[in-house]
């Protein structure tokens, strides 16, 4: 059953809250939170205040029912309008009980009728939509990306097998790189001092990368 999914399902509206026996929870923890400013929400809050006064003057239920249904018509989509009217028709006694107990917080009643939208939920949806539209790529930790490459430095300096020389072609950057590494490996084998100076030079260059990345590179 959807009720097992928790408050996100319970507090969609008064019907779902009633079905999941969570009306009090939604009143006290969800519908009373800040709401998005909108015409349906602002009108609804005014109507709740008016209805609160009408209840004291014994106005008919039919009149109050019509007040709320009129506000439902301000919702932007026809299916939301019908849903709102259906909730009013089915749960009017419950709505009036809420009006009596929430005169100081009319947004609670309006949230139950879906006429007021949670500000927190709205901002989360706007943020998600913005990310989708900009096709934003999440930031990556560069030190994590560099770590596996730096872990192979020992193999680069002390290879198990000498790479085969390939015919050097004009403008072939790959072949130039292979030749360079071959020359470095030959020098490493024949000159131990070169190794020390190369490592010291590499450390100095790493320190210029900043503390987070330089430590990963130097100690990997």
Q: What is the structure about, briefly put?
A:
The chain is built from 13 helices and no strands. It has helices spanning 7-10, 14-19, 23-29, 39-56, 61-72, 78-101, 106-112, 119-134, 142-150, 153-157, 173-190, 192-207, 211-219.
What would you note in describing this structure?
The protein is built from 13 helices and no strands. By secondary structure, the chain is mainly alpha-helical. The mean pLDDT is 76. 69% of the residues lie in helices and 0% in strands. 20% of the residues are buried. The longest helix has 24 residues, at 78-101.
Describe the secondary structure blueprint for this structure.
Blueprint: H1 7-10, H2 14-19, H3 23-29, H4 39-56, H5 61-72, H6 78-101, H7 106-112, H8 119-134, H9 142-150, H10 153-157, H11 173-190, H12 192-207, H13 211-219
Helix pairs in contact: 4-5, 4-7, 5-6, 9-13, 11-12
Domain Saposin A-type: 1-36
Protein name: Prosaposin
Subcellular location: Lysosome; Secreted
**Cα shape:** rod-shaped
Terminal-residue CA separation: 52 Å
Helix content: 55-70%
- Percentage of residues in strands: under 5%
Q: How would you state the average pLDDT, rounded?
A: 76
Number of helices: 13
Order of helices and strands: HHHHHHHHHHHHH
Radius of gyration of CA atoms, rounded to a whole number? 34 Å
């Amino acid at each position: 059953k959807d009720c097992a999914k928790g408050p996100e399902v319970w507090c969609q509206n008064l019907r779902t809250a009633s079905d999941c026996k969570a009306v009090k929870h939604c009143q006290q923890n969800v519908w009373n939170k800040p709401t998005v400013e909108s015409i349906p929400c602002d009108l609804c809050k005014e109507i709740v205040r008016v209805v609160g006064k009408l209840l004291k003057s014994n106005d008919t239920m039919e009149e109050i029912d019509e007040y709320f249904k009129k506000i439902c018509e301000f919702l932007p989509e026809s299916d939301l309008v019908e849903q709102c009217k259906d909730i009013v028709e089915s749960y009017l006694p419950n709505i009036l009980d809420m009006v009596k107990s929430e005169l100081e917080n009319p947004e609670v009643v309006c949230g139950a009728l879906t006429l007021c939208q949670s500000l927190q939920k709205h901002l989360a949806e706007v943020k998600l939509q913005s990310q989708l539209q900009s096709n934003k790529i999440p930031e990556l930790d560069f030190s994590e990306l560099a770590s596996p490459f730096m872990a192979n430095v020992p193999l680069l300096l002390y290879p198990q097998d000498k790479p085969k020389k390939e015919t050097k072609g004009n403008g072939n950057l790959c072949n130039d790189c292979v030749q360079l590494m071959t020359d470095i490996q030959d020098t490493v084998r024949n000159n131990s001092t070169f190794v020390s100076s190369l490592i010291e030079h590499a450390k100095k260059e790493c320190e210029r990368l900043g503390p987070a990345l330089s430590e990963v590179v130097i100690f990997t």
